Automatic annotation (TrEMBL):
InterPro entries: ATPase_NBD (IPR043129), Hydantoinase_A (IPR002821), MfnF (IPR002756). It comes from Gimesia panareensis. One of its GO terms (molecular function) is hydrolase activity. This is Hydantoinase/oxoprolinase. It comes from the Bacteria.
């Protein structure tokens, strides 16, 4: 059985099949929800016609939808339209696939369940001890405790996970720098940051050479290329300057400070999760488009640095690691679901 997995987010679409092919593309769902079905059809051209489509999502929170129920319904309608006549199943936080009808009836089971699919799939790598999965994407971070191969989260919905520290709304690309810290060191003082989206965490990691430049990538705060020169312009704007007013070393210091503050925010969330676990963590699994940040977090953490570290990108290729949730639902469906002919 040939299965395609989808992870429909608010800013990215990720597709993977059960054979290990994957693609991830930017898609501003909140701006153009009406284009979702057509965009999915275009992505399908890179894959074969599936026998089954397995879906997980976070895009129901996009502000083009008034409610999560509306978001789940419209996303599933677009998926059904794009992949007809293939049957569509939805991963739920109840650790099972449900039909699209049930997902529409109980939308909170399907809403924001992609982290659960990933943890269920990779948890088998830690079958006999406590583990921790840290997935850092462009926008959010998931910190998921594992026990005997299964996810054992404190919360299931977004708000429950925010309250528990298992969901942190910070990532390696789209987070505005003013959400990382209210101020930065500048000329011997702490300078407040403009409460605007002048620069994002992408710019920090470009400047610090932790992300490669891509002149064709225009998914930035100002729509200009994802290059170091353009990142300098954006970061300077965050303190109401241009690059003629700030030195290279000042911009570098700002970027380093902001990264340290983002790491501290993540460390505090990790500490909350570890405190509840009680027992020591033997293995840490890391993944996501900002896996480099997850590795930095683990290696700098006094407890996690003592655990065994596994980067999913080193087990799968980087494309699969970036679309890990889509790959997870495709593999879980291939294992668990039988299609009656």
């Amino acid at each position: 059985m040939y299965v395609i997995g989808l992870d429909v987010g608010g800013a990215n679409l990720k597709v993977a099949d059960c054979d290990g092919r994957a693609r991830a593309v930017p898609f501003a769902l909140w701006k153009t929800p009406e284009l979702l079905a057509g965009t999915l059809r275009e992505l399908l051209a890179d894959f074969g016609r599936p026998d089954l489509v397995a879906v997980t999502m976070t895009g129901e929170l996009a502000d083009c939808f008034e409610t999560k129920s509306e978001g789940v319904d419209q996303i599933l309608t677009a998926v059904e339209e794009a992949f007809a006549p293939a049957p569509v199943l939805v991963w739920s936080t109840g650790a099972e696939f449900i039909t699209t009808d049930i997902a529409r009836e109980f939308p909170l089971l399907a809403a924001a369940a992609n982290w659960h699919a990933l943890a269920t799939w990779v948890g088998r790598m830690v079958p006999e001890q406590r583990g921790l999965l840290i997935d850092i994407g462009s926008t959010t971070t998931d910190i998921i405790p594992l026990e005997q191969g299964f996810p054992v989260p404190e919360g299931l919905t977004d708000v429950e996970r925010l309250l528990s520290g298992e969901l942190v709304y910070t990532g390696g690309r789209r987070t505005p720098v003013a959400m990382v810290s209210p101020s930065v060191p500048l000329r011997g003082q702490m300078c407040p940051l403009a409460a605007e989206s002048f620069a994002t965490t992408l710019d920090l990691y470009l400047l610090l050479e932790m992300r490669p430049e891509d002149a064709l990538d225009l998914e930035t705060a100002n729509g200009k290329p994802a290059t170091r020169d353009a990142a300098r312009v954006r970061l300077a704007r965050s303190v109401c300057c241009d690059t003629t007013e700030l030195s290279e070393s000042e911009l570098q210091e700002m970027a380093e400070w902001l990264v340290s503050q983002q790491l501290e925010q993540l460390k505090q969330a990790v500490d909350r999760v570890l405190e509840r676990a009680g027992e020591p963590v033997g293995t840490v699994l890391i993944s996501g488009s900002a896996v480099f940040l997850a590795e930095k977090l683990v290696r700098s953490h006094p407890i996690l640095s003592q655990a065994s570290l596994t980067d999913l990108a080193e087990i799968f290729d980087a494309t699969i690691a970036d679309a890990a949730c889509a790959f997870a639902v495709s593999r879980l469906a291939a294992e668990r679901v039988q299609i009656k002919g």
